[in-house]
Amino acid sequence: MINGYPTEEELRNRIARQLEWRDSSDTVALIWHGYLSALFEWGVIELQAFDRLSAMLPQIGSKELMELFSDEPLSQKQEREVDESLRSYKKLD
Asked: What residues contact residue 65 under an 8 Å CB cut-off, 6+ apart?
């Protein structure tokens, strides 16, 4: 039986621990991206929390994540926009 929803801080701590255990692997990132997406889609966490927690993870699977939320394949234009966004994001690091 579930006693309540996880808080952003609890999720942040869990993500940080697993990233440390698994050396920020792509697999960990993909699992957490999926988990956070489900929490967001079902209203357990807000968009701002989703964005903050997602920012902790390696940027992998971004196009597929957008397709998940839109429930349709990305157009070529959208794919280019994601690529450009990821390039600018990496420049900020």
From this structure: 33, 37
> Is the same domain home to 56 and 72?
no
pTM, entire model: 0.81
Tracing tokens 């992998």 back to the chain, one arrives at: 60
Considering the domain architecture, whether residues 5 and 46 belong to the same structural domain is answered as yes
11 vs 32: CA distance, rounded Å = 10
d(CA 39, CA 59): 19
40 closest CA partner among 52, 28, 30, 29: 52
Contact yes or no for 8/47 (Cβ under 8 A): no
Which residue did the predictor score with more confidence, 93 or 59? Answer: 59
Report the domain count for the chain.
Answer: 2
